[in-house]
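Preliminary data (for renewal application), FE2/S2 (inorganic) cluster complex.
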Amino acid sequence: MDSITVITPKPNGPLIVEGPVRIITPDGVEIPVPPRKDGRPAQVVVLCRCGGSATKPFCDGTHKRIGFSDAPATGPAPTI
Ligand code: FES
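Predicted structure:
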C-alpha cells in the first residue's frame, strides 16, 4: 500500500479514502475500520458525507435512497 492517503469524493456519494488511515473520535477513541466482507483488513474506507448513514462515520448506502447531491447550493454566498 502506498504511504500517501488519497481521498476521493464520489459524485453524489461518499468519500473514498485509500491509504493508511485511523479514525479517532473527538474524545480520542479510535473507531475500528470494518473489515472487508471476506474478513481481511480494509484497504479502502468509505466515509459518509450525506449525513444520512446509520453507521456514521461510514457510508451505508443511504445517500442513494435519499437522493444526496453534491451540487453546489444555489443562492447567496454565506456570510462570515
Ligand atoms: S454518503 Fe453514503 S450514506 Fe452518506
